[in-house]
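User: I'm curious whether this sequence folds into something compact or stays loose and floppy. Could you predict its structure so I can see for myself?
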Amino acid sequence: MATSNDIKNGLCMKFNNGIYTVVEFLHVKPGKGPAFVRTKLKSLTNGKVIDNTFSAGHRIETVRVERRKYQYLYKEGDAYHFMNQDTYEQTFIDENLINAPQFLKEGDLVEIVFDADEEKALLCELPASIVLQVTYTEPGEKGNTATNAFKPATVETGAEVRVPLFINIGDFIKISTVDGSYSERVKV
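Assistant: Here's the prediction. I'll summarize afterward.
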């Protein structure tokens, strides 16, 4: 058992019949009244972010989680198959537990968060950014780099991304997996 004084970023806890991780926190000590901790909690089961305030000394039940590296193998229906890099053990995860499944390609390395007590997968996280090749987009125009206009482009995984006008078929681009936005063109 921990208290609200032990709250820090990344801490996993049981809250409202679910498992949540602390995304943001702020210890507040007002001049008048008791201290409290203002937090932003992200559900590991459905991904929703909620705000909550804990009073000083409030007891919280922490959950021990383990992060393990896995390699993506293939998709079968709604299940994605992954292999542990160390033990070669295979596991499958539902699509709703993956933070950006549209950007997964075979051979990619991801981190899977497991509840250490129940050996249950809670979440699958791709790296913060990923490099993919553009397979289709309208032709780019020379000199169209000054404007902030975007066009749709399809990448090798089949996902659609908004890219600047100068991007062409065959270019490699870096994409943020957090919001699916274009970051930059990459030379490979």
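Summary: The two ends are 49 Å apart (CA to CA). The domain at 2-62 is CATH 2.30.30.30 (SH3 type barrels.).
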